[in-house]
Design goal:
Length: about 350
């Protein structure tokens, strides 16, 4: 009664198949109740859900706890930290819900991950806002990059969402994977320029900033995350052995959550201990350049998700206008029958 029937990879439509994951798939036509039940059953998505749901609860608690320490409502200097924490909660919640409900239908699967990509993009601009007002090296404040950083970060965040969503069209899996990886790597690398410069200057000048180590740790985790995403290690060397526990996406989630915690601790230290200097020499946060930029990216991302959610039903649009340039299109996956644990013809 409290379990759902699970399937092997050869019983699933192609859109639901994951590389090197052989078993423990949920029905591609699950009900909402079956999705909720699967939270407590050993499926290949269970730990994908919990490895971001538990961090979501932790960072939500941090948001509320810090709101009592720092006056988020009245102190504009704390607004970048506030929007950063909101974006962290957003990407974690978007990730865990996407993994929980992506088996409702083929269309729902695409839409779930559209929201996931938008949430990651929103987190990117949240981090960029915090970097702008707390992390920039002292010698860079007032320079060209300092003044143009947030507009470029906002544009790259929205373009990231568009590019990542478009990667769900087509049948060339390697190209789709590369496009998705590049979609997130480019804005990450741009957003990290002030952090990389700060780390270099801190190391070369032997500065005593206590934020150096957590900043460095979260920066060094990034290539590990990219490696797991690109290679599907360790399941690639033992298909079927890591279907439930230990596959790359779970490790990816854990590393991302740990890096985010380091990032938060470093940002809090910078915000508190650099306040006097930044208030005197830097640009003070305003509503427009903190919460306003975050709201702009959030709104733009929701429009992108809506547009792609409609277009995914009409794939001929991409077949006609992008198929020749990027990759050929495929028709809708045929669902041969897995509806809530029983064979069922797709309607």
């Amino acid at each position: 009664m409290w379990t759902v029937k699970l399937f092997k990879v050869n019983q699933m439509p192609s859109d639901f198949q994951e590389p090197f994951i052989i078993s423990k798939y949920r029905s591609s036509r699950s009900s909402l109740l079956c999705c909720l039940k699967s939270m407590f059953q050993a499926t290949n998505e269970t730990l994908n859900f919990w490895t971001h749901f538990l961090p979501f609860l932790y960072f939500l608690w941090k948001l509320f706890a810090l709101s009592f320490v720092h006056n988020f409502l009245m102190d504009s200097y704390t607004w970048p930290l506030c929007i950063y924490l909101i974006s962290v909660c957003g990407y974690l919640f978007g990730s865990c819900t996407a993994h929980l409900f992506n088996c409702l239908s083929e269309h729902a699967r695409h839409v779930c991950f559209f929201f996931d990509y938008a949430a990651i993009s929103f987190y990117g601009i949240g981090a960029a806002i915090a970097y702008k007002f707390y992390v920039f090296p002292s010698s860079w404040i007032g320079g060209l990059l300092y003044n143009s950083y947030l507009p470029f970060a906002a544009v790259s965040a929205v373009m990231c969402t568009i590019s990542a969503c478009s990667s769900r069209f087509g049948d060339r899996e390697k190209l789709k994977k590369i496009l998705r990886l590049v979609s997130f790597a480019v804005p990450y690398l741009f957003d990290s320029i002030p952090l990389a410069a700060r780390l270099y200057l801190c190391y070369s000048e032997d500065c005593p900033d206590e934020s150096f180590r957590p900043h460095l740790r979260q920066f060094l985790i990034a290539p590990m995350v990219a490696f797991l995403f690109a290679t599907h290690f360790p399941e690639c060397i033992a298909p079927g052995k890591f279907d439930v526990v230990g596959h790359s996406h779970q490790l990816f989630h854990v590393l991302v959550a740990l890096a985010t915690n380091d990032q938060l601790n470093a940002l809090i230290w910078d915000m508190v201990h650099r306040r006097e200097y930044l208030n005197e020499h830097g640009t003070k946060p305003t509503f427009f350049w903190s919460l306003g930029v975050g709201l702009f990216v959030f709104t733009a991302n929701m429009l992108v998700v809506y547009a792609f959610s409609v277009l995914i039903k009409h794939q001929y649009f991409f077949r006609k206008y992008t198929g020749n340039m990027f990759y050929k299109m495929k028709g809708r996956a045929k669902v041969n029958g897995v509806a809530n644990g029983t064979d069922k013809k797709s309607s």
